[in-house]
Design a protein that fits this description.
Layout lengths: L1 H18 L26 H9 L5 E3 L1 E4 L4 E6 L1 E2 L5 E2 L4 E8 L6 E7 L5 E6 L5 E9 L5 E9 L4 E5 L11 H6 L11 H10 L3 E9 L3 H10 L7 E4 L10 H16 L2 E7 L2 H9 L7 E3 L10 E2 L5 H10 L8
Parallel strand pairs: 2-10, 11-12, 11-14, 12-13, 14-15, 15-16
Antiparallel strand pairs: 1-3, 3-8, 4-5, 6-7, 6-9, 9-10
Helix pairs in contact: 4-8, 6-7
Organism: Chitinimonas prasina
Keywords: Signal
InterPro entries: HAD-like_sf (IPR036412), HAD_sf (IPR023214), LNS2/PITP (IPR031315), PI_transfer (IPR001666)
Length: 325
């Protein structure tokens, strides 16, 4: 009888583990094989050749996050110069993918940039996992990388704003972008992000920053020893402070919760737009943590003057994500 009960318990446990979603695969994209290089050919247009000879490439890939079973659209933006952002038009870009369960880079084909310097690559459903996307301009070999996350419904997630939330104020990013300094992080902010990652939570960076500071953001993550994805900037922000911050964040939180099915267990911000967007997106005020002058307002919770006490108390006491490794 005892043996039968033990077997039943074991089978139940096995069934529970099978039903449980896997934790985010943060390792594989960091261990990608040598980057692929397509054969270099001349630019199609003389103007493109002149452009690439005069200015530094400032390309970016929008990170993409979809639910398992959904198709994904990978978006690349190709331009030159940190100030002019002159679009690379009507030139060929090659696209590659590497990630969970793959032994080598997969070639996804090539596309021509449109009049905005963009390409759009449709990718059919992929297994749940984390993937690195690499796009290479054929004419000069300049390349840029981004990420694709394919997640199972119910994935436990922690969401962070960046400027004024992880960095000490909202203007640090632009000093960083201008090359004047490296944006300073709040004390124990990077450790807080890493702790959630190590506990198996999906990490989302949702920022009001315009798309063209993506490269600087990824460099900043590296300097703070943080993984640089999933990073969502404002795809429509042309100026330094896009006017649709609340709308941008609200819509993306709703997309993550309602379309992808993420379980956003906690969100961090600093601004009234963060408070409003998180609430509009369905995140509980009790799990909305705010730092800075608006901390604790409108029913939110205060992080404190920095993250040190929050890290040692709230984050340390947070159980691991409900996922299997």
């Amino acid at each position: 009888m005892t043996r039968r009960i033990s077997l039943a318990v074991a089978l139940a446990l096995m069934g529970s583990l099978t039903a449980q979603a896997a934790c985010p695969d943060y390792t594989t994209p960091q261990q990608a094989p040598a980057a692929p290089k397509p054969a270099k050919k001349s630019f199609r247009h003389l103007g493109s050749k002149i452009l690439s000879g005069l200015y530094q490439p400032w390309h970016m890939v929008h990170d993409t996050l979809v639910a398992q079973g959904q198709s994904a659209t990978l978006v690349g933006k190709f331009d030159y110069d940190a100030v002019l952002h002159k679009d690379l038009e009507d030139e060929r870009v090659h696209v590659y993918l590497y990630g969970t369960g793959m032994a080598a880079w997969e070639y996804l084909g090539s596309q021509m940039t449109n009049s905005d310097g963009k390409i759009f690559v449709t990718l059919g459903p992929r297994p749940a996992g984390e993937y690195k996307v690499r796009m290479v301009v054929e004419g000069d070999g300049s390349a840029v990388e981004g990420y694709l996350s394919v997640v199972e419904p119910g994935r436990d997630t922690v969401l962070f704003d960046i400027d004024g939330t992880l960095t000490i104020n909202d203007f640090e990013a632009y000093a960083d972008y201008a090359g004047l300094k490296t944006a300073a992080a709040y004390y124990y902010a990077p450790e807080t992000v890493r702790a959630y990652q190590q506990k198996g939570y999906q990490i989302i960076y949702l920022t009001a920053r315009p798309y063209w500071v993506t490269r600087d953001a990824r460099e900043w993550f590296g300097k703070q020893n943080l993984l640089g994805w999933h990073y969502r900037s404002n795809p429509y922000g042309d100026g330094p402070i896009p006017p649709n911050t609340e709308e941008h964040k609200t819509n993306y939180v709703r997309y993550l919760r309602e379309t992808v099915g993420l379980n956003i267990v906690r969100a961090y911000g600093n601004a009234t737009t963060d408070i409003a967007a998180y609430a509009n997106g369905g995140i509980a005020k009790a799990e909305t943590w705010i730092i800075g002058q608006h901390a604790g307002k409108e029913g939110t919770r205060s992080v404190g003057a920095d993250y040190s006490y929050h890290y040692s108390s709230v984050v340390a006491a947070t159980p691991p994500a409900a996922c299997r490794r």
